[in-house]
Design goal:
The structure holds three protein chains of three kinds. Chain B is an all-alpha fold. Chain B has 13 helices and no strands. Classes of the chains: A alpha+beta, B mainly alpha, C mainly alpha. Chains in contact: A-B, A-C, B-C.
């Protein structure tokens, strides 16, 4: 290990230790679809365009510049010259063509590739010279440039295949179930203002650690120097014990939400289906939930009440004009009365005399969600609703919400990795598989869903971002009126960074704490135990 | 009175208090186990809340009392079921010998090899969603009882085999006792202490299995408390150091299990 | 000699058959458990319909359960344990990587537990007093009362290896059994006769009591081995140690049929084998 320490810029050497939540499933950047693999891709992959996680602006990376055609179907990259992969293989436009070919292969079923798939048809890549690549899509792709942030370029020629990389680190060692060791890429193209080659830190050791309490314990002992995402309770504790290490980047992109099962063929009683399909019922229950208490108690104040699908931290796409109805159980009862419900000795009943009781399912092991559900249970009991909470292991939960539809309501979290809502096409289109409350519809069941379908399709074809935003603003308004999803809170982006890690500036976008890995430095005591 | 006897009486008293508290929970505490005092989450012990409050502002003392009811009343029921099954199968294996013995023992060994937690997770996921928390906890302990017999089986089987080879059994057989009379007059009375010991040993095991399930988030449904879901607060040691009253459920569990160990007949008493 | 070989072959065949039955039961449970065949990738909004269909098809068995299991066993004869649907790697490779860790933890944990339990049991029998007996009961009761999750976290907090957790979980049960065996032997008439003759307590213990306990202790070895293995699995899963336990828990949560079947097969073979070994040795002697 190199331990070169300087006061000013320049390599600090040392080894950065932090954890992955799960075993990475693949090192092939084309096939990445889990968080651990995505982190490895971020640390090792070189991309043509990088979305700066701090400014949210797009920056040139392997491509010096790019141009998107007016119809949004073609993008031309001017590549940097003289770059090499980690094993010395030269980088050229051929590698871009090779990568796009693999990415867009329908047999690959790549989530990254599917994000580009706006229509059927082949994707063409032309390489008029070794430093120019033009990618042409069969139809316009909304937010085209931003999608290239996820495309790590593979070498067409290297015998090491996906292990030969253009990013700041390469995978040097992998012990299944234990750790992955990344070493500095000697051929990494980026340099700092003084001309020093980046990254500063010599190596990164990623340990597989599922248990978050153990992860925090190890951080406090100095065995880890960084925790990318901290739960609110742990953050609160860290804040009291080691405030300098606790980093709050403000409101994050992630949200907690619940929805009612509106699938017409679901194995539920008809009267329950009628409740869940009634807008006033959903709006009333939304109004009866005390979001401020959820944020204050479950998330220790490190969350803000949410009313729409876009977090305020997504500066461009957030609609600030959305109504934010306050907690109002009395108002909820008025809405329910309008829908034919009445309170009978403290129990809410519908017009046919059925007691309003239903279950909400959520994944087991997530204590924050269980607490939220318990608080929602209490809130809804104030308006006479009997809510039962059931925790299921994740596989059983997914089966119920995607296959059997044998559930009443579900409480889950929304993890947003992409700022552009176009990436959620399958959520908003009524025919989409992720249109959770009533997926894969042959035709829209309601007028407002038909309107959302129309708006989503329109915004996907518009090249102008302001026009797209106007369409999506209207979608947000419809969602606020109809409440198919009842958004609860937007969680803050919380991380832990040891004081020995210089240059860290955690942000709301993932990866929160190590988005600028190439300019992080370890301090004078850049060894384990430095936290003590 | 011997020291051991005094200790046993003391343990019986503690267990009686615990059982009594579980049965008369509503009289001991004025709060509901689900009531959330949202102004005082994670508060330390006070006059209003003897053991403080949990993360949702629920009175911890109330939840410990009601949690005792769930764990301490249902675990013995599960232990009884498991011991009864072990008694029947172990008795059959030991008495009949030959193929019956081989099949039953092999089945027990196989059951031990199966991933029990997975079986519990899968069976729990099969339960209808709209059952009450009480029903779901009864079902959980019932399943634990149905699956918990293999561990006791070999002990019962070994005891029955020893019995078969004992002088009084051989004498009874030589006297021409029928199978039923042998079972009722020789086997069951001699097996009673073994079965009783297995019953008492199984109780803490089922309490702990439910606790492990709850710590994985798959135990008793909210808001019903059990020792298991109360123990989830012990997952973080620095949090416990900051809120030491959270260790009370673990302390109650340990004291109860130790008392159950003490009331078991000693090796000298059964030898 | 031939008879001995025949008997051994019979036992091994029986062992293999039982392990196979165990694997089939496990495979059946996994196949029909809720959540089989689903993948959390189905919630990824980026995936196209074609990709979703491909993912769903990947997780289907493709054939009936019996024919799947038949081809699995056939592959097993060639050393092919199948491919993990969750980790997308050959199961054989995964087991080869993780097994040494678990075996080490189980062996060391067992050794530690046996040493500690034997010393404690011998002390309580050699120096019979209610105080010593009660203290031993309190200590082992404390250990029994700790849930596996708490023991796992305690090991992490105190920076103890997993085998220490295995020892802590196995020790109290081992002590109880050993104490019973030794006390039962101590109550035999020949021991009473030796005491009446004025033989010293140490001599009685080491010359008369312990020798008659070998067979039941050998039987206990089998039981304790499967107890230790059973303890190692949740401990590894809860402390995130890279052993078979963690693998088994992940396989269970993700309904990974090939992985869970393979692990159950191995555990069943181990459990049945270890439990039949003392019985076989006893039969050989008598």
């Amino acid at each position: 290990m190199l331990h070169v320490c300087r006061e000013g810029p320049g390599p600090s050497g040392g080894e950065l230790h932090f954890c992955l939540r799960n075993e990475p499933k693949t090192f092939n950047p084309i096939l990445v679809d889990d968080e651990a693999s995505e982190h490895i891709r971020y640390l090792t992959g070189g991309v043509l365009i990088r979305a700066n996680r701090q400014t949210q602006a797009l920056e040139p990376s392997l491509a010096e510049s790019w141009k998107v055609s007016s119809d949004g179907q073609k993008i031309t990259f001017q590549l940097r010259k003289g770059l090499q992969f980690s094993d010395g293989t030269p980088f050229s436009s051929e590698d871009v063509a090779y990568t796009m070919r693999l990415l867009m292969d329908p047999q690959a079923h790549s989530a990254t590739g599917d994000a580009f798939r706006s229509a059927e048809g082949r994707v063409n890549v032309q390489t008029p010279s070794s430093d120019v690549a033009t990618v042409t899509f069969p139809a316009p792709v909304a937010g085209l440039e931003r999608l290239f942030d996820q495309v790590a370029i593979l070498s067409a020629k290297s015998p090491k295949k996906e292990m030969s990389v253009l990013g700041p680190y390469y995978v040097a060692e992998y012990k299944a179930g234990s750790h992955i060791l990344l070493r500095r890429n000697p051929n990494y193209w980026k340099r700092d203002a003084q001309g020093n080659r980046l990254p500063y830190i010599e190596s990164v050791r990623l340990e597989v650690q599922r248990n978050r309490d153990i992860e925090l314990m190890r951080f406090q002992r100095g065995e880890l120097q960084l925790i990318n995402r901290l739960e609110a309770e742990q953050f609160d504790r860290l804040q009291k014990e080691n405030a300098a290490a606790a980093r709050n980047a403000g409101v994050g992109l992630d949200a907690e939400e619940m929805w009612f099962n509106q699938v017409p063929t679901a194995p539920l009683a008809d009267y329950k289906k009628r409740w869940f399909q009634t807008t006033d019922f959903r709006r009333a229950l939304s109004m009866a939930i005390n979001r401020a208490d959820l944020a204050r108690i479950v998330f220790f104040g490190y969350a803000t009440p949410a009313y729409g699908p876009v977090s305020p931290s997504n500066r461009f796409w957030f609609n600030p004009a959305l109504p934010a109805p306050k907690y109002d159980p009395h108002g909820a009862l008025v809405l329910l009365a309008r829908a034919g419900f009445r309170l009978d000795h403290g129990t809410l009943k519908d017009s046919a005399g059925n007691r309003v009781e239903f279950t909400i399912v959520t994944g087991a092991g997530n204590t924050a969600r269980e607490k939220m559900a318990a608080m929602i249970q209490q809130d809804l009991s104030q308006i006479g609703v009997n809510l039962k909470l059931v925790t299921l292991d994740f596989s059983s939960l997914i089966e119920r919400i995607t296959r059997t539809f044998d559930y009443d309501a579900c409480l889950l979290g929304l993890v947003n990795t992409d700022l552009d809502p176009n990436g959620q096409m399958t959520v908003w289109l009524s025919s989409g598989a992720d249109h959770q409350w009533n997926p894969s519809q042959k035709s829209p069941a309601t007028r407002w869903e038909a309107e959302i379908d129309k708006l989503m399709r329109e915004q996907a074809t518009l090249p102008n971002e302001k026009e797209r935003k106007a369409k999506f603003d209207r979608i947000q308004e419809i969602v606020a009126e109809q409440q198919p999803f009842i958004y609860l809170v937007n969680k803050n982006a919380l991380s832990a960074v040891s004081v020995d890690v210089a240059g860290a500036a955690p942000v709301a976008l993932n990866p929160q704490a190590f988005w600028n890995i190439d300019t992080l430095r370890l301090g004078a005591s850049g060894q384990l135990g430095a936290n003590k | 009175m011997s020291g051991r006897r005094l200790l046993r009486i003391f343990c019986y008293s503690i267990l009686s208090v615990a059982f009594g508290a579980a049965l008369f929970a509503g009289t001991i505490t004025k709060y509901s186990y689900a009531a959330q005092f949202r102004d005082v989450p994670n508060s330390p012990p006070s006059a209003m809340h003897l053991l403080g409050t949990d993360g949702l502002g629920r009175d911890l003392f109330t939840r410990v009392i009601y949690g005792t009811r769930v764990s301490l009343l249902l675990a013995p029921a599960a232990a009884f079921l498991a011991t009864a099954i072990a008694g029947i199968l172990g008795g059959l294996a030991g008495l009949r010998g030959w193929l019956t013995e081989k099949v039953i023992l092999a089945f027990a060994d196989l059951s031990l090899a199966l991933p029990l937690l997975f079986v519990l997770v899968a069976l729990r996921a099969l339960l209808p969603l709209d059952v009450s928390p009480i029903f779901s906890v009864i079902a959980t302990f019932f399943i634990l009882g149905l699956l918990g017999w293999p561990a006791s089986l070999r002990v019962v089987w070994a005891a029955v085999r020893r019995l078969r080879q004992s002088d009084h059994f051989l004498f009874a057989t030589a006297l021409g006792y029928g199978k039923t009379r042998l079972l009722l007059c020789q086997v069951i009375p001699n097996l009673r202490p073994i079965l009783l010991a297995q019953f008492w040993i199984s109780i803490p095991l089922f309490v702990l299995t439910e606790a492990t399930l709850s710590m994985l988030g798959l135990g008793v449904m909210e808001p019903l408390p059990s020792w298991g879901n109360l123990l989830r607060g012990c997952e973080n040691f620095s949090a416990m150091a900051a809120n030491p009253w959270r260790v009370v459920p673990l302390f109650v569990l340990i004291v109860t299990v130790i008392c159950l160990q003490y009331i078991l007949p000693t090796s000298g008493e059964t030898a | 000699m031939t008879a001995w070989i025949l008997k051994l072959a019979q036992r091994l065949l029986l062992l293999a058959a039982l392990a196979g039955v165990g694997g089939l039961i496990c495979a059946t449970m996994v196949r029909f458990a809720p959540g089989f065949g689903v993948d959390e990738r189905e919630l990824d909004p980026r995936l196209s319909q074609a990709s979703l269909e491909a993912i769903r098809k990947e997780h289907q068995l493709g054939t009936g359960l019996l024919s799947y299991y038949g081809s699995y066993l056939f592959g097993l004869c060639r050393g092919d344990f199948g491919t993990s649907t969750f980790l997308e790697r050959p199961v054989g490779e995964l087991l080869k990587e993780r097994a040494p860790f678990t075996i080490r933890a189980v062996l060391l944990g067992l050794l530690t537990a046996w040493l500690a339990a034997s010393v404690l049991a011998l002390l309580t029998v050699r120096f019979p007093s209610w105080l010593l007996d009660s203290s031993a009961t309190a200590f082992t009761g404390l250990l029994i009362a700790l849930p596996a999750a708490v023991v796992a976290l305690l090991c992490v907090f105190l920076r103890l290896p997993v085998f220490a957790g295995v020892a802590l979980v196995t020790l109290p049960k081992l002590f109880r059994y050993q104490q019973n065996i030794l006390a039962h032997a101590s109550a035999q008439p020949f021991v009473l006769a030796a005491q009446a003759r004025g033989v010293s307590r140490n001599r009685i213990l080491f010359r008369h009591v312990i020798p008659v306990c070998w067979h039941p202790l050998a039987a206990l070895l089998g039981v304790s081995a499967s107890m230790a293995f059973g303890a190692a699995i949740p401990l590894e899963a809860l402390s995130d140690s890279p052993g078979i336990g963690q693998l088994a828990w992940q396989a269970a949560l993700n309904r990974d049929l090939p992985l869970l079947t393979s692990i159950t097969l191995l555990v069943a073979g181990f459990t049945v084998g270890i439990n039949s070994f003392p019985k076989a040795a006893h039969q050989e002697q008598s």
